[in-house]
Amino acid sequence: MAVQPSKTLGVLTKNMILVVEDDAPSGRAIALALKTAGHEVMNAGDGTEALELLSMHDFELVITDLLMPNLSGQNLINTIRLKWPHMPIILTSGYLSKDLGKAIIDGTAAFLQKPFTPTALLMTVERLLPKANY
Length: 134
Prior knowledge:
This protein is of the alpha/beta class. Helices cover 40% and strands 21% of the residues.
C-alpha cells in the first residue's frame, strides 16, 4: 500500500519536520519516508545542531533519537519544552529508560521503539500534527 501525502481540501500540505539522528543512514531513511509522504524535512546530527535549526526555522514536529553525542534526546526534549512548549515530539530509541517512560506518560513526547516501520512512523506523525493538515 502506497503512503499518501498530507492533504487539506485536496491540496498538498507540506509540514516542516526536524529529524534529529546521529546515525546518518537511519536519519536518511526517516527523512525519505517523510518526504515520500509529502513532508518537508531537515536533518540534524545531534541535539546541539537541532537547537540551532529550531531557532532558525518554523517546524511543526521534531523526531529525535534518545542517545546522541553532545546533547541527548532527553535533554533536547527538556530544552524544546522550555522554548517551544507546544511542539509535538517523537522520541525514538532501541530501549526505554525510566526517565523516558516518565516523559511519555507526562505527554511530553510520543515514542517509537527502534526498529520501526515507515507505516508506524507516518501513523505517529499524522496523530501528532495539527488535525487541519489531514
